[in-house]
Predict the structure.
Amino acid sequence: MSKALGAATFRTPAEAYDRYIGRYGGELARALIAAAGVRPGRRALDVGCGPGALTTELVAALGAANVAAVDPSVPFAEACRRRHPGVRVELGSAEALPFADASFDHAFAQLVVNFMTDPHAGVRELRRVTRGGGTVAAAVWDYGGEMTLLRRFWDAAVSLDPSAAELDEGRSMPFCTPGELGDLWRSAGLAAVSVGPVLATAQYDDFEDLWEPLERGVAPSGAYVAALAPAQRAALKRELRRRLGVGDEPFRLTARAWIAVGRAP
Ligand SMILES: C[S@@+](CC[C@H](N)C(=O)[O-])C[C@H]1O[C@@H](n2cnc3c(N)ncnc32)[C@H](O)[C@@H]1O
């Protein structure tokens, strides 16, 4: 799946995203905000805001008037706007941000850089809209390792359908290692770059609670499920449940992401 097609898998209802990857978003956002050194009175931009997991936490920290957000997905940008009436939410892409130079103290991209059509241009834009001395920060899942849900998902998919290997986000996603993510930050001209791990958790009522949003086509993994014939879909469902070792009882999953932070010159 190309990056453009990957990005297209986020043109789904916001509520399906909330129930899928969105479950991890609040905890991840709080870690990202802490890593970026956000303080009251500052202004922040959420790039690739989705339905607004990070926007929510930025509003709690800074107030709606000090937060702006942007996303190319119409349903996600609309959901973010509806949820945060005082926030300026724009429809647009990281590669061409509709904001003036140096208009924010902090620019963020939570779970976004790997979906950008031109990540180098996108991160340079995050730097451009950040004032000198401000921070540019991102989080990317550890797709190849300890993002448990997606790792088990693609392992299950490939075990049943070897051709799914090329879709496995552990292989196909750029910037999902600390070295590659740090290099992207430095190549955008950011200084004092640090990259480190963070764990986010999600709570599920049972396996059905985890599986249901996948059938709605959200994210590359959901798009893969939605395209399967019913018998293959049922086989994948069984295999994922087996690999996760969960069933009809509540459970929690952890997900590791890498956080990169750099300072705008
Ligand atoms: C995994 S979601 C993350 C959403 C949100 N930041 C969160 O943490 O829940 C990826 C988001 O990136 C957006 N996106 C895809 N390509 C983009 C681009 N070129 N510039 C900005 N956002 C993009 C998608 O529309 C989607 O909302």
Remarks:
- The CA atoms of residues 44 and 221 lie 30 Å apart.
- The chain has a mean pLDDT of 96.
- The beta strands are 44-47, 67-71, 88-91, 104-110, 130-141, 191-204, 251-263.
- Residues 7, 10, 21-22, 25, 47-50, 53-54, 71-73, 76, 93-95, 110-112, 115-117, 122 surround S-adenosylmethionine (CB under 6 Å).
